[in-house]
Amino acid sequence: MRTLMIAVMGLSLTAASVTPVAAKPPLREVAAIDDALLDMGVADIIRKNCPDISARMLRAVKMAWDLKGKATDLGYSDAEIDAYIDSDAEKARMRARGAAFFKAKGVDTSDPQSYCALGREEIQKSSRIGSLLKAK
Question: How far does the signal peptide extend, from start to end residue (predicted)?
Answer without folding.
Answer: 1-23
